[in-house]
């Protein structure tokens, strides 16, 4: 059993490595991976998830510049997420649907982190998969889902118009709409509230340590995606919150 979980962990870490490449290389996957600083090609053992970073001591073997710690953090995180997902859901159809949604969310998280923008294609895919799951597997009424999603996105749309796009982006509103379709009520509401709180807390910490100002932009979509993943993984633990809604 331990070996099985280790395999799942490294599979998740591999997915994270691939997702990071997709997020960084917005124009395609052509060519081998290279160091962002010196441009030298990275050998296969340097691309091994988690272990490649550890054995290289977090530095390029050619120019000795530091490799972004995000690579290690994201690989460990998605490895742990997939292991937790299998532990809670097993290999049921719910697990496969949850895994698909989690991988899309992780891609959105990474893409927004690197580029400060959310790709429409991934958001649409998230909405479609979530909508199919809600309608055909959970039996939720389609009009109920659409009304919930509209009501969830409407306040943020008003903020977007009022601030002329200064407080949040249109991609964030689209993601909130897609999350509401995918997670339903009250889980989408919990994810959005936690996303707002976590983004605010992180921003205040950056301001306190003078790493940002109150006008600095944050990848809000990354926080939304992360808190949504947590809600998917720990729905049973969030049941106590559900009673408040």
Automatic annotation (TrEMBL):
Location(s), subcellular: Cell membrane
Keyword Cell membrane included in the entry's annotation: yes
Predominant cellular place of this UniProt entry's protein: membrane
Alphabetical UniProt keywords: Cell membrane, Membrane, Transmembrane, Transmembrane helix
Gene Ontology BP annotations: signal peptide processing
Superkingdom of origin organism: Bacteria
Membrane topology qualifier: Multi-pass membrane protein
The family this protein is said to belong to: Belongs to the peptidase A24 family.
Entry protein name: Prepilin peptidase
């Amino acid at each position: 059993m331990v070996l099985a979980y280790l395999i799942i962990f490294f599979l998740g870490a591999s997915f994270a490595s691939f997702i990071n490449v997709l997020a960084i290389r917005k124009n395609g996957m052509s060519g081998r991976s290279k160091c962002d600083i010196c441009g030298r090609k990275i050998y296969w053992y340097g691309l091994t998830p988690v272990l490649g970073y550890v054995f290289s001591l977090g530095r390029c073997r050619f120019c000795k510049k530091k490799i972004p710690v995000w690579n290690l953090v994201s690989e460990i995180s998605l490895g742990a997420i997939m292991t937790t997902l299998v532990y809670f859901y097993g290999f049921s159809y719910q697990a496969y649907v949850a895994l698909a949604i989690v991988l899309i969310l992780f891609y959105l998280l990474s893409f927004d982190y690197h580029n400060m923008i959310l790709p429409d294609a991934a958001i649409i895919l998230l909405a479609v998969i979530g909508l199919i799951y809600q309608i055909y597997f959970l039996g939720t009424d389609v009009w109920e889902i659409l009304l919930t999603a509209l009501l969830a996105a409407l306040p943020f749309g008003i903020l977007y118009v009022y601030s002329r796009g200064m407080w949040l982006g249109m991609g964030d509103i689209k993601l909130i709409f897609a999350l509401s379709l995918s997670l339903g009520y009250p889980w989408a509401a919990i994810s959005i509230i936690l996303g707002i709180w976590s983004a605010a807390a992180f921003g205040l910490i950056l301001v306190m340590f003078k790493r940002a100002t109150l006008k600095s932009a944050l990848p809000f979509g990354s926080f939304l995606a992360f808190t949504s993943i947590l809600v998917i993984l720990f729905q049973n633990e969030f049941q106590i919150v559900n009673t408040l809604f």
